[in-house]
């Protein structure tokens, strides 16, 4: 979020408000105000007509969200996948297993059985080994990972590409992906059109409504110089 204040007066001046200390509020009549705290500690409510609010990733039209907040759910799934991946590698990529026994076992007996019979399946040194069981074990069943799950875990390693997707940024800006001049030029045009323009156009229109008097709007407009990129 960015808040730019243009106080009412005979001459124009703009002030950037502290985004961490500014927030929109509504009064009883439904009019929007911006509550802010100035550097001297003074708290004030500014009318919505004087404040230009620039935001990204907004879901309510009143305030924006950071890229990390917006992508938190996706990143949470990725962190969970990394945890699963680490546990798999710590076991030498061996499959899990289930052991069925004849009779009922208490907790202590189950732990002892697990320690006695499953040790052969743990650790990369025992990968591909053979586990031997006596007649106490009625059934031994491995639980293997599916190819789809294995592919999903592999894709979680592409963190740089995923973060670039959060920002809508071409991979060549991170020295990844295609590096040919023609390809990068095409991606740059697409970056401006599909990532930047949705924000730039909104900000241009908002500034026109906030900063230009009504009599000037017919022949005057504000525009970012995209060629400067």
**Spatial order of the strands forming the largest sheet:** 2-1-6
Indicate the structural class.
Answer: alpha+beta
Beta strand count: 8
Average pLDDT, all residues? 79
State the shape.
elongated
Q: Could you tell me how far the N terminus lies from the C terminus, measured between alpha carbons in angstroms? A: 22 Å
Helix percent band: 25-40%
Order of helices and strands: EEEEEEHHEHEHHH
| Biggest sheet descriptor | 3 strands, antiparallel
Task: Describe this protein with a few key phrases.
single chain; 229 residues; alpha+beta; three-stranded antiparallel beta sheet; 6 helices; elongated
Structural overview:
The structure is a single chain. The protein has 229 residues and is α+β, with helices and mostly antiparallel strands. The protein is 36% helix and 17% strand. It has six helices and eight strands, in the order ββββββααβαβααα. The strands form three sheets. The chain has a three-stranded antiparallel sheet with strand order 2-1-6. Strands 3-4-5 form a three-stranded antiparallel sheet, with no helix packed on it. A hairpin with a 5-residue loop joins β4 and β5. The two termini are 22 Å apart. 3% of the residues are buried.
């Amino acid at each position: 979020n960015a808040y730019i204040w243009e106080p009412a007066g005979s001459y124009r001046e703009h002030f950037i408000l502290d985004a961490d200390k500014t927030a929109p509020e509504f009064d009883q009549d439904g009019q929007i105000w911006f509550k802010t705290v100035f550097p001297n500690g003074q708290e004030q409510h500014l009318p919505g007509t004087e404040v230009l609010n620039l935001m990204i990733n907004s879901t309510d039209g009143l305030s924006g969200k950071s890229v990390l907040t917006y992508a938190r759910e996706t990143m949470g799934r990725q962190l969970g996948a990394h945890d699963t991946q680490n546990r798999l590698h710590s076991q030498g990529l061996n499959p899990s297993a289930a052991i069925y026994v004849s009779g009922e076992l208490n907790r202590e007996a189950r732990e002892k059985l697990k320690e006695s019979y499953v040790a052969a399946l743990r650790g990369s040194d025992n990968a591909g080994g053979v586990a031997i069981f006596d007649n106490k074990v009625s059934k031994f069943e491995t639980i293997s990972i599916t190819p789809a799950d294995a592919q999903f875990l592999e894709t979680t390693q592409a963190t740089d590409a995923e973060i670039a997707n959060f920002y809508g940024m071409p991979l060549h800006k991170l020295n990844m992906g295609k590096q040919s001049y023609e390809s990068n030029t095409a991606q740059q045009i697409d970056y401006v059109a599909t990532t930047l323009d949705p924000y730039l156009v909104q900000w241009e229109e908002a500034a026109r409504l906030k900063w230009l008097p009504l009599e000037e709007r017919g022949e005057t407009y504000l525009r970012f110089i995209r060629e400067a990129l």
